[in-house]
């Protein structure tokens, strides 16, 4: 196993709009599997990723019931990453930018996701071993 | 000398600025920095043996590692034996390893 | 020792009317307020942020007027007067027909050949 590091990811994309949000979660999953601690600063639309009220739906086009469709919800993927981190004795510190939360009205996040702001991101980038920004694009 | 990993997540057909990313890779390598270009998501659409892959093939010939992410290729039905010369495959964990090793990882 | 950081801003005018700010320029100023040493490199469409004549005022939706439009040139100038170095990609500005005389005071032009050396002067590149 590689030497344990602390890696910070800054995310900006909301779910269901870009491939970037899924790739971001895959990277976090890979980092945890490799035994690294992870910080996440969810900025702008990325504060939607952990929103507690995401709901699945059935798929009439494919004739699938709610259960059959088993529609992914980012909040569930994040919860699974939190569980994986805990099981491995790793930190997954997920911070939502509070002002971004307020303006989007997504104040209720899943447990384990905390409200923060730029000082948290500033501390993450100073204290972690490396930082990757996954930016939005026009 | 700092190591760079440039992630190319968009394709050059719709994102005009991807040429700038390839140019940055060449510029950094010309100054002696170890550089890898990592194609992910629609970035792998430039990886087939097509004219659009020529900038990537040129980078590979110059000594820059050009990697295409395995899942992104599979997701788009791009067979690994159809990749342009010089493009190899890697899994997404390569990016995490590069971060852990201290590379400057820049996402485009 | 704290890291010296370069924030590379690429997208221009994305969500700036709704946010009344550029989100990355805003975040950079907030990080500087928290004591982080961070400079800015404007590239791509973000080179527009140095143009003095930007004017986003006057929007209204029905009877609701926007009272605080983004003032991106002023924000760039505020970073400079606050001690940050704000650089811009000279080639990207030329491609977009932006003349140096149109830009605010204090911006530093960077030619493409100088970018690797610029990056080496910082401990961390945040590529937005």
Could you tell me the strand content of chain C as a percent range? 15-25%
Give the fraction of residues assigned to helices of chain B. 25-40%
Number of helices of chain B: 4
Query: In CATH terms, what is the fold-level topology of chain C?
Result: Hypothetical Protein Ychn, Chain: A
What form of chain B results from the Cα inertia axes? globular
Write the H/E string of chain C, N to C. EHHEEEHEHEHE
Domain count of chain B, please report it. Answer: 1
- How many distinct helices of chain C? 5
The percent of residues in helical segments of chain C reads 25-40%
CATH architecture of chain C: 3-Layer(aba) Sandwich
CATH architect. name of chain B: 3-Layer(aba) Sandwich
Backbone CA Rg of chain B: 13 Å
Describe this structure in words.
The complex is a heterotrimer of chains A (138), B (108) and C (128). The mean pLDDT of chain A is 96. Chain A has 5 helices and 5 strands, in the order E-H-E-H-H-E-H-E-H-E. Chain A has a single domain (6-53, 71-134), classed as DsrEFH-like (Hypothetical Protein Ychn, Chain: A). Chain A is α/β, with parallel strands linked by helices and 138 residues long. In chain A, helix 1 runs parallel beside helix 3. The longest helix of chain A is centred in the first third of the chain and has 15 residues, at 19-33. Chain A has helices at residues 19-33, 66-69, 74-87, 98-104, 118-127, and strands at residues 6-11, 37-42, 92-97, 113-116, 130-134. The termini of chain A are far apart. Chain B is α/β, with parallel strands linked by helices. Chain B has one domain: DsrEFH-like (Hypothetical Protein Ychn, Chain: A), CATH 3.40.1260. Chain B has 4 helices and 5 strands. Chain B has helices at residues 18-30, 54-61, 70-75, 93-100; strands at 4-8, 35-39, 65-69, 87-90, 104-107. Chain B has a 5-stranded parallel sheet, sandwiched between helices. Chain B starts with a strand and ends with a strand. Chain C is α/β, with parallel strands linked by helices and 128 residues long. Chain C has one domain: 3-Layer(aba) Sandwich (Hypothetical Protein Ychn, Chain: A), CATH 3.40.1260.10. Chain C is built from 5 helices and 7 strands; from the N terminus they run E-H-H-E-E-E-H-E-H-E-H-E. A 5-stranded parallel sheet of chain C has the order 6-5-2-1-7. In chain C, strands 3-4 form a two-stranded antiparallel sheet. The longest helix of chain C has 11 residues, at 23-33. Chain C starts with a strand and ends with a strand. The A-B interface holds A 2-3, 5, 7, 19-20, 23, 26-27, 30-31, 33-34, 36, 129-130, 132-135, 137 and B 9-10, 15, 40-42, 71, 92-93, 95-97, 99-100, 102-103, 105, 107-108.
